[in-house]
Design brief:
Elements lengths: L2 H42 L15 H24 L6 H30 L8 H34 L3 H33 L1
């Protein structure tokens, strides 16, 4: 192997290491962000807090459908990753499109929930507790929306470039991000909706 090839291989390896480090650094900062938002929500939603109680406005059945939509999107994304091992474009694209649809259903339901809450008089300016709720749930929804844009980008890039190492690496990063959002939502569903309904 020539010195140029060795140098190119080492440069490529260093770039991959920096990418991995940068991505995990981003996930860590997101963990800190959501931990801060959860802490704020818990502090402001104590018994006797000012303003209307969230419990009166929660529809657990609606949020459960929302949850299944997000979990289904995670499942179909996993199938997209598995189907990439055959290096064929059609199946990963099919599963990615399904992932996008389930994710879009989740975001659509969340926006509808926000609109309904505001119409019922539970808006961002109602109380500190309401502000914490909208900020926490809205931040998660914004992350899912960015994830949908990323999925859309991959749906465009896969037919253009095929299943190569770069595409596989981007899909792995996207999968980690999408899984992270599911984990955050499970905490959010448990703390905000289930505990809030009690």
């Amino acid at each position: 192997m020539s010195s140029v090839a060795v140098a190119h291989h080492e440069h490529h390896h260093d770039t991959d290491s920096i990418d991995v480090f940068g991505f995990w650094l981003y996930i860590l900062t997101d963990c800190i962000l959501f931990a801060s938002l959860f802490a704020t929500y818990v502090v402001l939603h104590h018994p006797g807090a000012y303003g209307p109680d969230l419990k009166e406005h929660i529809s657990l059945n609606y949020v459960l459908v929302e949850t299944f939509a997000l979990l289904a999107s995670n499942f179909t994304f996993g199938l997209a990753i598995i189907s990439m091992k055959k290096n064929k474009v059609q199946m990963p694209l099919f599963w990615l499109v399904l992932t996008f649809i389930f994710g879009a259903i989740f975001v659509g339901m969340e926006v509808t929930e926000f609109v309904n809450l505001i119409e019922e008089g539970y808006s961002y300016t109602t109380s500190g507790a309401a502000s914490a709720f909208f900020t926490l749930v809205g931040t998660h929804g914004l992350h899912v929306s960015f994830g949908l844009l990323w999925i859309l980008t991959m749906i465009i890039q896969i037919p253009m470039f095929g299943i190569n190492q770069t595409i596989k690496r981007r899909m792995v990063y996207l999968g980690l991000f999408w899984n992270f959002l599911d984990i955050v939502w499970i905490f959010l569903f448990s703390i905000v909706y289930l505990m809030g309904a009690m």
